[in-house]
Structure formats: structure tokens, C-alpha cells
Amino acid sequence: MSHAAPSTAPEVVQPANPIWRRRHTPTWFFFGGVALWLFLLLVPHVLLGNPAVIPAWILLGSGLAASTLLLIMARRLQSGDGVTTATLLWAVLVGGFIAITLGSTFDSLIGVAATDAGENPHDIGLFFAGVAEELAKVIAVVIVAWRLPVKTARGGLFVGGAVGIGFAVLENLWYIGQGWADGVEASQKLAAGSPPLETILSHPAFQAAGAAFARTVFDPVGHPLWTALFAAAVFAAARNGRFRITVGVLLTYLLVAVMHGLWDGNTVLWGLLFPSMPVLKALVVPAMVVLVVAFALIWRARVRHINREAGVVSLHVPRRERKQA
């Protein structure tokens, strides 16, 4: 009886999946960042009295949620999107700085115009923030994506979301830093022997942590979402690699500008609608929840449509449709 000769062909070893593509990496990334953020505050600063860690603590608080969202986006990239991870990083860094530069300039011009017209520049600025900042961010999108050979609506979602993330991180730095400054001012005004609870609430870290928490919770439904929707329309309108201004682009601009304006001007709007009923200001938070749900539904519908057109089956598509695909 003959025996087959043992095979001498080398065994094929499958390459290990990169750690950032593993299933639970975004979860570990986010909660690991939260643990590091708390450690920086409680151990080096509070226990050991080292104030040098505060800038790092503020930076981590401003970028943790946005970085987690960027990681999730990178994991969902596909070859047909025409966008790479390097493109996303470029959009975050370069596009974010371009957007914040243009956006702050446009916001300031609106404030000057409102002052000249005798209006409250703060209130007008909040309502027209969407007009100014969404225009600034889409200009940044066009600049960073100008040389991309493939421009699809799905690719626009990624590039726009990345620019929105860069803008959000830089904006968050101001809000969290301002929370710290407000806490310093409040703690200086405390009289000696103030109640412990009042002392804690007035601590700069508490004020800044509150701002960081609010920005972390609402970051995903803010700048990244609005700019992703706008950029998707801009990319979809491109022909032969060239960007174009179409009716669809203008309508999308109007939509995201209204979404952004309602979000920023929510508090002011309640005051204008019910000036003699300040108790209704308690409805601001429920109104924000309603806006979050509305934004999420708009996002879901648009992404489903884009994925269907691109022939992409993703987690945004219902399970029954994924099975059919």
C-alpha cells in the first residue's frame, strides 16, 4: 500500500486583523479614554496638585468622542468610496483648521452686521451660525477633496464627517476651556466657609467637566452629521471629477443651515416665542432631545438612500434587507 508524500508547500498564514479593526475596539478606545481623562484630573491634578496636566485634560475631553467617531468611520470605509484613512486624517487636521478659521471669520462678520443694524449680535449669531459655519466647512471639504479622483455621495459622507469632526474638536476646546475659566471665577467669589456642595459645584474642573460631557453626548449629531450630509450632496453633484453647484446642493445647504440654527438658537427661540413665560425655558432640554431624534432620522434616511445607490450593505440597512442582499 502506497502512502502519499507529505506536502512541502508552506502553510498560508492569514495576516492578523489590525487592532483598530477588531470588533470591540471603538468601545475600548472610548472608555479607555474616559478612564484616562478621569485619572488625569483626579490623580496628577487633584491629589498631587500638578496644574500642568490641565491642557492635556481639556484636549482629551474635547476630542475623545470625536476621535471615537472617526475610528468608527475609518472602520466602515470600503474600496469603492474613493476615500482612504489618510484622507480622513487629512480632512480632520487640515480641513478642521480651515473650517474653524473661515467659520470664526464669517461668524464675526455676522455679529458686526447685526450690531450695525441695532440687533443683538449674540442672538443673531446663534440663529445664523448654520449659514456661516456650514458654508465654511463645505469650503474646507472642497479644498481637501479637490484632487480626489473619485467623488461619490458615500465618499462625501466620510470627508464631510471628518471635516466636521476637526471643526468640533477645535470648537470644543473653547467651550471646555471657557468652562474652566468660569469655574475659576466662581471659586474666587466663594466666601470662606461655604457649603461643601457649593464649593464642589464651583470648582473649575466641575464646570469644565460639565461642558465636556455635553459636547461628548451631542458631538455625533452636531457638526459631523451636518457637514456629512452637505458634503454628500456636493460630492453627488460632481461630474467628471469637478464640483458643481446644483439645486440639490443649495437645498441641502438650506436644510443643514436650518438644522444647525435650530440647535444653536434653541434657547433664544423659546425666549422669543414666550417672553412672558420664562417657566417654558424648562422645555429647552426636551426640545433638544426632539432635535436629536429628528437629526438621527434625517441621517438614517439619507444614508440608507446613499448606500442603496452605491450597492453597499451596511449596519444602516435593516436586517431583512441585508439578508436579501
Are there runs of 5+ residues with pLDDT below 50, and where? 315-325
Q: Into which percentage range does the β-strand content fall?
A: under 5%
State Rg.
24 Å
Question: What is the oligomeric state here?
Answer: single chain
Compute the number of strand runs. Answer: 0
Q: What best-fitting shape do the alpha-carbon axes yield?
A: globular
Order of helices and strands: HHHHHHHHHHHHH
Mean pLDDT comes to 84
Number of helices: 13
Major sheet characteristics = none
Transmembrane segments: 28-48, 54-74, 86-106, 126-148, 155-176, 221-238, 245-263, 283-299
Organism: Plantibacter flavus
Keywords: Membrane, Transmembrane, Transmembrane helix
InterPro entries: PrsW
List the helices and strands and how they pair.
Elements: H1 25-47, H2 54-75, H3 85-116, H4 121-127, H5 129-145, H6 153-189, H7 196-201, H8 204-218, H9 223-237, H10 247-264, H11 266-273, H12 284-310, H13 319-324
Helix pairs in contact: 1-2, 2-6, 2-8, 3-4, 3-5, 3-6, 5-6, 5-9, 5-10, 6-8, 6-9, 9-10, 10-11
Structure description:
The chain has one domain. Helix content is 72%, strand content 0%. It contains 13 helices and no strands. It is globular and about 70 Å long.
Question: Outline of this structure?
Answer:
The protein is an all-alpha fold and 325 residues long.
Provide keyphrases for this structure:
single chain, 325 residues, mainly alpha, PrsW, transmembrane, RsiW-degrading membrane proteinase PrsW (M82 family), peptidase activity
